[in-house]
Amino acid sequence: MTLSDRPRPWSARNAWLAGVGFVLFVLLLLVPFPWEGREINAISDLGHAPFFGAFAVASAWGFRRWHRFPRPVGDLLVGIACAMLGLSIEGLQSLVGRNPSWHDAAANTLGIGAGLCALQMLDSPSVLRRLTWAASAMVLLGIASREPTWRLVDTIRQHQEMPMLGSFETVGELQRWVPHRVAMRRVPEHVTEGGWSLQCRCREGASAGMTLEWPPPDWSSWDALTVDVFLPGKRPLVFVVILSDRDAISGDDRYFFHTRLAPGRQRIQVPLNGVSTMETPRRAFRPDWLQSLGLYVIGPSAGQCLFIDNIRLSHTREPDEGGE
After folding, report:
1. What is the pLDDT of residues 268-324, one digit of tens each?
2. Separation between Cα atoms, residue 19 and residue 13, nearest integer Å
3. CB within 8 A of 194, min separation 6: which ones?
4. Domain boundary among 160, 181, 204
5. Which residue in 57, 107, 137, 227 is deepest, having the highest Cβ count within 10 Å?
């Protein structure tokens, strides 16, 4: 060990700065974001890996100055400690109004690995080893960034597709929707737009359906939401559309639209202007500030199927299509 490699005691100033930096780091990961949206979440998730990678590099550098461990062993201990911190923070986020995510925990760990690879690159004497460690760091960051990058690109695509909200022409489009007691898959049957529709096979229960979280938020330029539905069999169902704006403060503080879903094909039209929420006292629903769209059926039997396609916004009300 050379003189420059020997641990040097921390000054009071350095220790204070490290403590303040650590507290700020934890608070930044725990304080709820003032902004919401699918693109905001994607950008936030993209930052997890490089953020934790930089934190691991700073922590390992500080540990080297404080302790006499061999560098690979000391760096590994720092990496394990940072990974445990990342897992703990994800667990605490549910207590402060944020949503914990296993994907975020994995991205944190991959970022820590990338940061430690970057440190090994700087310590390596040969060009080949430096290139190997650099490539390893880039691969780890690429794996951590793959899903949020796709989500950010898909969010941009959602805005470009407006006023279309769902035509199910790609497999990736299914990932925009959160299922509730349904199995969803794309099928080339009962199509009204493009070449594919969405088949929803329900499980028995009080309700079943799906939710589109964080669609493009401003629907104020359109008068109605239209949904093409095909219901096989002879038993009618109740079809419910639930729209939530960003002013909603409870489950009933949303706009509910109910209609009878007859067997066959029909176009459901949901007015958007001059409507109000269900909760008393009622308030005007805001079509310029959407948060989620839910499509549900009430009381389906086990294995009940329905086909959904051509979910879009329209400027004028159109006549319903006749049943098949």
Report:
1. 999 998 888 887 778 888 888 888 999 999 988 888 899 999 999 998 644 444 433
2. 10
3. 167, 168, 169, 309
4. 160
5. 107
